[in-house]
Specification:
The chain is mainly alpha-helical. The protein has one domain. It is built from eleven helices and two strands. It is globular.
Length: 276
């Protein structure tokens, strides 16, 4: 199972390098189901892995000038603040169990929604949303990409960008996913960034908010397996470097729908497994 888990780490990094998002949505399921990591702890581990991997992946985009720093700051600040607050205050205060449904005649609980199960179900719902975003391809996608690739100045819708940043930060804090599938459309539609700049800027935002979110978990009483984290992260970094190299030869848009279907199957499996 561990071998499959490390293969999954490569695929996670590969997806981040190729399409700038999506791969991090696999990290928590890999940690929970293949490495038997507790679901709550897995969301914390995921923040570190995704943050470090995205940071390494953003270096090549820095060299190519694909990061729009003003957008990264405008979007990143509310996202970083919300993910830090979510990990520091919201997640520790989620009750366990979250809710107990109808009781059987003997007084026992017929179904108990534990904190771990609740987070995994929420994560699976996010996976399904991400899958839909990746599968749905506009007939005009190529034409839109050409228009967005033009050397135009980004136009900012500040209220929407700030709100989107805060929402993505909460999602990241709760489930440990980078949220690239939410960030990239927001950068393209709200800030009018070209796709390549949106991908590079997204990786920088994901890196900053994920690593700071992980810091929000450091309260002094946690037990972190740093050796495992270093191994998994190193393998994921190899994946993102390979993905960045392949992105120059393989259009990410061609791979996104196929990856989306895979994520959809995974998300559906998690919902069925955890609830039924």
């Amino acid at each position: 199972m561990e071998i499959l888990g490390y293969i999954g780490a490569v695929l996670m990094g590969l997806s981040l390098g190729l399409i700038g998002g999506g791969g991090s949505i696999l990290t928590v399921p890999i940690l929970v189901y293949l490495f038997q990591v507790d679901a709550v702890l897995a969301t914390a581990y995921s923040l570190f892995i995704v943050g470090l991997t995205s940071l390494v992946g953003s270096f090549s985009h820095i060299k190519l000038g694909n990061i729009h720093w003003r957008t990264a700051i405008v979007f990143g600040i509310p996202s970083i603040v919300s993910v830090f607050l979510t990990r520091s205050y919201l997640v520790p205060r989620i009750p366990d169990p979250i809710v107990t449904f109808s009781q059987d005649p003997n007084g026992g609980a017929a179904f108990v929604m534990t904190k771990a199960v609740g987070l995994m179900v929420l994560f699976a719902v996010i996976m399904v949303m991400a899958a839909y975003s990746m599968i749905k391809t506009s007939k005009n996608s190529n034409a839109e990409s050409d228009v967005l690739a033009a050397d135009t100045q980004p136009q900012f819708n500040y209220p929407l960008i700030l709100a989107e940043g805060a929402i993505v930060g909460v999602v990241t804090g709760l489930v440990g996913a980078g949220g690239g599938f939410l960030i990239i459309p927001a950068l393209v539609l709200l800030a009018k960034l070209p796709m390549k700049q949106a991908v590079g800027t997204s990786l920088m935002i994901i890196a900053a908010k994920s690593l700071i979110g992980f810091v929000g978990d450091m309260r002094g009483d946690e037990v972190i397996d740093w050796s495992f984290l270093a191994t998994f992260s190193s393998i994921a970094v190899v994946g993102i470097l390979l993905g960045s190299w392949l992105s120059k030869r393989i259009p990410g848009e061609k791979l996104k729908p196929a990856f989306g279907w895979f994520v959809l199957v995974m998300g559906t499996y998690i919902i069925v497994k955890e609830l039924f």
